[in-house]
Design a protein that fits this description.
Blueprint (H helix, E strand, L loop, with lengths): L1 E2 L6 E2 L13 H19 L16 E5 L17 H8 L2 E5 H12 L1
Antiparallel strand pairs: 1-2, 3-4
Length: about 110
């Protein structure tokens, strides 16, 4: 048994299952998701396209301009290749969660 240096969870190291000796699979997956979010935010300009908010990357979302053209949601796509994600990002605008809520409120009117 080894201990994850990030979450301190005990796990049985097994290279065949994709484990590392220092970080558990959950923490590795979280790293990949955070790295992808940072890359997506950078690709889309780093700030809300409506109000220019840029303090927290977690407060930024990707809004599909035409929902009928949406092939997949950006969140949860950390196993897709970057070219496919960029293609999907090009169908979106990046907005903060407040502006995202307002956009959906406008759509519902």
């Amino acid at each position: 048994m080894v201990e994850c240096k990030e979450c301190k969870k005990q796990y049985e190291y097994d290279r065949k299952k994709g484990h590392t000796r220092t970080v558990c699979n959950s923490c590795m997956s979280n790293r990949k998701r955070h790295d992808l979010k940072n890359k997506c935010v950078e690709y889309k300009g780093g700030k809300c396209e409506r109000c220019e908010y840029s303090k927290s990357k977690r407060a930024l979302a990707f809004h599909h301009l035409d929902p009928s053209q949406k092939d997949f949601g950006i969140s949860g796509s950390h196993s897709r290749n970057w070219e496919a994600i960029k293609k999907e990002l090009d169908k979106c605008i990046m907005v903060c969660h407040n502006c995202h809520s307002e956009l959906h409120d406008e759509l519902e009117k």
